[in-house]
Amino acid sequence: QSHLVESGGGLVQPGGSLRLSCAASGFSAKYYAIGWFRQAPGKEREGVACISSSGGNSAYSDSVKGRFTISRDNAENTVYLQMNSLKSEDTADYLCVADLLSVEDMLTMPPGWTPNYRGQGTQVTVSS
User: Fold this and answer.
1) 48: closest CA among 4, 3, 7, 103?
2) If you ran DSSP here, which 8-state letter would residue 31 be given?
3) pLDDT tens by residue, 12-35
4) How far is it, in rounded angstroms, from Cα 81 to Cα 46?
5) How confident is the model over 75-84, as pLDDT tens digits?
6) DSSP readout, 41-63?
7) In terms of Cα–Cα distance, which of 53, 60, 42, 39 is closest to 121?
8) Quick check: 18 and 10 in contact, CB under 8 A?
9) Contact of 32 with 57, CB cutoff 8 Å
């Protein structure tokens, strides 16, 4: 069964760093744009960062721009999200998805959109 597997979440203090990984299983991710999304309790899901299939184009939400960096290693079939200068408001369940949308469209999550592939999520908690 083809899907994505997230890892790297955990508990970190404010100002700390984490690196999330999103590994494709059962399909080749190199043909797809990959996006990271997050959802905190009581809040709507929001797009965090997306990267094109080649890695040449990326898009970030204003809330993480300058602090988070998305990258990919197509040879490893994996996408990474490096998160620096973490804040309490970054606490959420982080999910990665794969789709053929542009990174700009993916980040905005078009109404009614269902991605081609998705993972189960990994929890990030920023707290002292």
Assistant:
1) 103
2) G
3) 999 999 999 999 999 999 999 999
4) 15
5) 999 999 999 9
6) TTS--EEEEEE-SSSS-EEE-TT
7) 39
8) yes
9) no
